[in-house]
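Re: [help] complex structure
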Amino acid sequence: GDSVTQMEGPVTLSEEAFLTINCTYTATGYPSLFWYVQYPGEGLQLLLKATKADDKGSNKGFEATYRKETTSFHLEKGSVQVSDSAVYFCALSDQDSASKIIFGSGTRLSIRP
Amino acid sequence: DARVTQTPRHKVTEMGQEVTMRCQPILGHNTVFWYRQTMMQGLELLAYFRNRAPLDDSGMPKDRFSAEMPDATLATLKIQPSEPRDSAVYFCASGSRAVGAFFGQGTRLTVV
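Output below.
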């Protein structure tokens, strides 16, 4: 079945460091791909998305490119801030699953001042 | 600003009691999801609806959990009887394949 695998955390970086959180997926069709962010005590917020191969989603300095050849959707940011500390979830929605959205296990990110 | 609204935000109940959680999805979204989040299991999909019809509830313990959408503005998740292992944060989300899922703030359930 469809699945999402993302790098285990926690990931700890210094402020202004470059961030990469790896995400790979398995799907039978042509999924839409998403990154969500969850701050403490809150629900998940959609960070960015891409709906077809080679699309790049971007928001708040974060980017991710839909790579069909490597079935990946890695999240990147050039210079992280303390306020980026949160849990990040990669997710997919496969057209064959009638919009069912499947999440990875989440990666906790901590940024040191 | 459209958002998914969940009530109550917090619920503490005794084992064996019935718990009902409510969700108002974003108008126009045709898919509604119920997720449960715990430290041990992470984010689990319990059930989801499309155009108010249940599509998949395989993630729910059928003997005690039930999910319904009596109308387009209300989704409910019930637990009867509740057990301590049901303690978790329950999230409702609405959306579609193209736009993704928009989450509510969650209901933090504690069963003692």
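The two ends of chain A are 41 Å apart (CA to CA).
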